[in-house]
Records
---
Amino acid sequence: MTGPLGRPGPIVLLAVLAPAAIVTVLGYVSLRQWARSSELLFREQARDMASMTADKIGMMLRVTDDELLARLQATLVDGHVTVEAFQAAAPLVDRVYLFDRRGTARYPTTAHADDTIAAGLRTGPAQELWERGGRRELVIGDHVVLAAIVKSASGEPVLAALSRSREGLRRQVFEGTFAALDRATLWEVLDEAGRPVYQRAPLSDADLVASVPFREGLPGWRLALYQSRDASPEKAVRRQVAYLTAALGVLLVVIVAGIVATYRLVRREMEMARLKSDFVANVSHDLKTPLSVVRMYGETLDMGRVTDEAKRREYYRVITRESERLSRLIDNVLDFSRIDSGRRRYELAPTAVEPLVRETVEAFAYPLAQAGFKVDVEIAPDLPLVSLDAEAVRQALANLIDNALKYSAERRLLQVGARLAGGELALDVADRGIGIPASEHDKIFEKFYRVGRSETQGRRGSGVGLALVRHVADAHGGRVTVESRVGEGSRFTIWLPVAPKGERPSRAS
Ligand SMILES: Nc1ncnc2c1ncn2[C@@H]1O[C@H](COP(=O)(O)OP(=O)(O)OP(=O)(O)O)[C@@H](O)[C@H]1O
Ligand SMILES: [Mg+2]
């Protein structure tokens, strides 16, 4: 019966786990790819921004250079203003040099202490200007020099060289340009030897993102772009990756939880299906046995072969007993089906407890005697009338007694009692039978549940008796408890409130 329904097979498990695994792998791979490409994109954008900024600075310098050269030319031609005055008015210019064609210094006439620039101008690329004209930016030593041919007052060509002032560049060009840009980006200008000329802010906590050369104005110099470590692309991407990984993790947890929940649900359903099919088999068997006994005895009597009066009486009694058993079984099943579909109604009425209990035990007198049971009924004196549904309580007690009968072995003792305890009516049914393992104490009250087949082997039953008992107790606002040890016996107690909803029923007798 457990064959194909036994348990969710590995295929089912695989069908759920495989998609989860695929989702995980795909999610992880695409996350890595996304991280890589977004970092590349970020760097590319940063490089573009750096290039644009470097070009802008280059263009600014070109415009300033044009102006400077025009002013120098004017200074030389009209002679009103001295070269010193020109230089003083040009903060971007560090030093001014003027040479004639023969290499004689026209300005300054007294050499600077450090004369690398003068020496550099007398040779090398500066000399090409005499032939080609125009202007050039040269790197001489650690100076950037703008060199061009201008005309002196007398009209002869003069090689003019203006060395760029680092301080001037910092103040006049870089600060203004970078102040206008987004604050999260940190900028650095490096000279031809890689020495920082300008830093927008301390860069100790920043990562280099891009570094580009100045294409104009500052040969050999570079413009570098940094991001503070918190805002660096790696960090941003890493944070995003962490978020997405967490989201993926949550998704996985949800999927796994779903799988587990589904698995348990399926298992429960399968267990229920198994219990139900057992139930049908058990009920059918339980109905069949007494029926065949009744039929056999009935037929025998009908044939008129039984002449012995005592024997005939015996047969009649068997028929009565078996039909009683049948009725009880059918009542149980019908009631259970009413309970299961929520149609069972209880009608409570003040009832005397003693007769109820005694009559119920009495109904089992014959089977108890047949099985050799010692029966002990103990009813506390002066029990009050208790508001209950007599038929339902009788049926509950009958189920407990039936169990005691069924699940006893060598020691056959049935104790039935009614007493008051803690303001409740306690109806006890105890036996010295096979007992119930502690782990099963809760489960036996579930519908269709029967303790492991070996223990109940040979003892038929449909597994609804205790479910019914519990329902009856609950319906009265009470409960049912069990104390039991394997091999020692069991004691079931139905607890019913004596005075439901505060009213106190009048005393019996
Ligand atoms: N007095 C008892 N001693 C030992 N085991 C018991 C006792 N009463 C109940 N059980 C265990 O609890 C299970 C559930 O009992 P329950 O009365 O609900 O079902 P059942 O007796 O098997 O069938 P039925 O519906 O015919 O009563 C039993 O199958 C049995 O294993
Ligand atoms: Mg039972």
---
Amino acid sequence: MATIQDFYSGRSVFLTGASGFLGKQVLEKLLRSCNVKNVYVLVRPKKGKTSQERKEELLKSKLFSTLKITKPHFSSQVILIAGEMTSPGMGLSEEDERTLREDVSVVIHSAASVNFMEKLRDAVVVNVIALREMLKFAKTLTKLESFVHISTAYVNCHKQFSPECIVKPLHDPHAIIAMLKNNTDEALEAQAQQLIRPWPNTYTFTKCLAEWLLQEEMGNLPVCIFRPSIIGASAEEPFRGWVDNFNAATGVCVGTGTGILTNIYGDQNMKADIVPVDYCANAIIALGWSTAIERSSKLPVFNFTSGQLNPVKWADFVYWIPTYFNQCPLEACTGYSTPSFSTNRLRYLLYVYGKDRVKMIFLDFLLRLKGKTPRLVRLHQRALKGSGVLEFFTSNEWNFESENIAAFIEKISAEDRMTFNFDIKTVKWAEYLIHYCEGIKEYAMKESMSLSSIERARKTQNRFAQQPRSYPGTDDFLYPG
Ligand SMILES: NC(=O)c1ccc[n+]([C@@H]2O[C@H](COP(=O)([O-])OP(=O)(O)OC[C@H]3O[C@@H](n4cnc5c(N)ncnc54)[C@H](OP(=O)(O)O)[C@@H]3O)[C@@H](O)[C@H]2O)c1
């Protein structure tokens, strides 16, 4: 048996953020490939659903469909830990605390608020204070061998070069935590923009604070930091193109794929630093093993990005999105997909308001005439919000140091590399982007992939607009006929 699997065999993992995009993928892979004893998942109650209901819902995700066949009883290894990261002691019951203390060997901390617009207080509470609670608790786990903290490659995003080491924030995390106590929400928000500068948003600011706090408070814990860039659909596992949210790049693919959005602000010649979610999960699991084995006295940091090792550009998205969606349209389409990029703000605004918004107002008017509920202006607003978030990534480019992850891959056995592939150089971007679009249609939008439903969507597409003559994807090469 290979070394990584050997390590996990019979051991238990405590995973936070399991209901999230990345956490779900880590959970699936641990259960499918690691022969773990148990995976304890911290799930909070949300939107009127109990933690138990949410755990059951999580395991119904299509992501687990392979497991349902290969390990039909896998759900018995997923143990619910009802909690709330922002409560004292993470809201754990005494009994759960005891169980975790006696059984957990690896902690994977993925829970976070990834909302760029989060209020400063909320972002600090989830991304910094909750990590402190987690560290305090991890120190009481008698069998703990490794702790993987999920950060982001953008902790240092106000600088063009991002080294693989902890960046000193301009403010002490404890001082920021104290500010939360001493200020009302209004007072805090009034200072927030000034306080977080030069970080562009509360997300990257608090993730940076969290790393510093981790370094200060980890004590003797065997910890490592994993920093992915923008996480996209899966490249290979458990199937290609799996994605179930509309965050960042995915949301903009939907907006431009439906034809609701025709322009994105940014430079298409810049690198799109995307990394597949399954590669991230494999790397995290491998780091859980290596952190336990190596017991480094330093806190190892791993940037996990594609820009340096196997770059893809936004221009590739602009090519492959229409190539796919003009052949295999989304049912929610409003015509053909014709995305472009603008580096000129005025040109961009003319596109999104002068062209797209006017078209959506007109289409909503037609819907009203037909007695249907108008929805396109609302969808356009949502798409614009998504592309507004992505603007930060489409109009900047970073140089992420990638030595540590490259050296780490070299250390892994050939067998482990096959089972836990995270070598970004092996991603073939053209194939990846086609499967990404397919995954958006099938898993995120939950649309049927039958030929008849694709034909129906094509009719809708043609009803809305004339086929553009010279645009990628208008040649029938994907689904002829
Ligand atoms: N997605 C990316 O492009 C990206 C890029 C770089 C780094 N990362 C990092 O990767 C990690 C996972 O991100 P993701 O994309 O999977 O985000 P996500 O889909 O938004 O998932 C976030 C997870 O955190 C949980 N969580 C948030 N607040 C919580 C609380 N108060 N108590 C308990 N659980 C809470 C969420 O639970 P609920 O379901 O209950 O909300 C969810 O399971 C984060 O640390 C993020 O910073 C993500």
